[in-house]
Every structure is written in structure tokens, then in C-alpha cells.
What does this fold into?
Amino acid sequence: MKKGVWLGVIGILLLGGLVVQPKSVQATSLKSERSAIKKIAKQDLKSLGGRWSVQITRLGKQPLSVQTGNHKIGRQRSASTIKVFIMLTIYHRVQKHQIKLTAQNQQDLTLMIHNSDNAAANRLITRAGGLKMVTKTAHQFGFKQTSLQRHLLDTAALQRGYDNYTSVQDLTAFLTKMYRHQLLGKTYDRKMLTLLKGCRNHSKLPYLVKNATVYNKTGEYPDKGVQNDAALFKTKYGVYSIVVLAQSGSQVQQYRGMNRLGRDIVTYLNQHPAKQSRQNTSSHLTLQPRLSSLAAIVSLENSAKPTMLPKFFDHGYFER
It folds into this structure.
């Protein structure tokens, strides 16, 4: 192509407000954001002790996902986060006309998700077709690290070596696919979202987050040092998922670490929404001042740690 023609094309692009971003610069921006997010997670969760893993995901036009932990990331004790897969199995069987969504089933789903009611969960496991059916359904939808091996509060089975497991990968995939209506389709995925929006326990990841719609399910078994939370946050800047699985650690530090992480990650991602990230990738210099907010977050946390524990802090020892 002749030089004059090239100049004409460039002129049209500039006049039309179009800027072509180099792919390598966009990749650098995402790499910097992933690095910053991982640094926040490690800073906020370093005091948890025991074993923990986290996955943080931004949905939208410029998605990103970050995993980190203090061990090899894999399956961990699920506690009541397993209940989202019981919910999935019930709705899947309803969709396939294998069971009916009776008033009792709907009431038990509400109790199980809103209040983490174990008796309701065990009734739903029976109606879903049993422990193996829930595991089979989870695997069918790609959640390969999830397994339901015992009923809730079945300590005898636990003593025989049976427990319930999931992973930050599986819970993240569940949340993001459900939000995108890629699990059971719009009708039933919306039903599951509505139930998660009603979860009463916002004592962990959502506790210090402001101006966000929250869809989450917690899980805890203090006697085993387990504190988990899987949450979607919808703000005016974007939609993010944060999943933390922690076990064999200090309960107080687990709560405080998750409180910090929810606040700091949502704050950071709100300051780096996908649309702005795309616009700012034209220059490395425009990104660096924004990343300095990480230092402000760390400084704030070092100077002001929560002194009051959330309302739902569990002083007991049982699973819920």
C-alpha cells in the first residue's frame, strides 16, 4: 500500500476516535493486574495459618482470573459450600422432569441457602437421589473436584473417613457460569442467583464491602478449622467473584483475613474496571499511578485492623 493511502487510513481512524491497541500492551496490563491482585490476596490472607486457597475472577469484556494459596491448590473440605451443588442437582432434576419443584422443595432450598439449614439440606439430598447423585451431577457439569460423601452433620461418617470436598476452581466456575446463565439456562440459573442473593451470612468476604449486590454461600466447620466463602459481587463498575477455602487455621484470623480480602479486591477491581483497563492500555505510564492504590490498601490495613468480629462469627464447633 502506498504511503499516502496509509496516511489517509490513519487520519480516518484518528478523526473517528478509533484507537487500535497493541495486543502486547493489553497483555502487559492484564499481567500487571494479576500481579497486583495476587499481592493483595497474599497480604490479606498471610495470617490465616493452616491451609488456604483463593481464586479471584473479573467477568466482562476483559476477564481475568487469579489463583493463589499457601499450598498446592486442589480440593479442600467444603463444609456448607457443598450446598450450591445440592441446589444445582435439585433444579437439574426439576428441569429434566424427574422431580417436581414442590412448595416443600422450594422451602427447603430457601432454608438451605439463606440460613444454611442442615436438616433442609439432608432432606434435599434424599429427594435429589442421594449422595452419589449430587456428586454425579457436579461431575456432569465439569466440577470434577467436588464430591458429597456424607450427609451434613454426619459425624459418624466423618470419623470413618468420609467428608465433602470442593475447590476454589469448582466454586468459581459454578458462580461465573450461573451468572452467565451457562449452567441450566436463564430460568433456573436466575432462580439459583435469587437464592444466593438471599444468603443471610455476609460475615466474611462481603462484610466490609460497600455499594455491591452480593450473591454468596458460606461454609464453616469450626471444629475442623474450616471457614469458607464463595461470593459474587456486582457493582456499577463490574462483576467479580472471590472464593476462599481455609482449613486448620485460626478462626479469628480467617474471618479478619476474608473481611480484608473482600474489601480490598472489590476496591481494587472497581478502580480497574475492564472498560478503563482497555482504554488505559495505550500507555504503561497511565497504569502505574493506578497500581499505587495497592500500597494505599496495604498501608490502610496495617494501620486499622477490625477489632469487632462479625455478627455471624461462630463460637461453636459444628458444621454449617
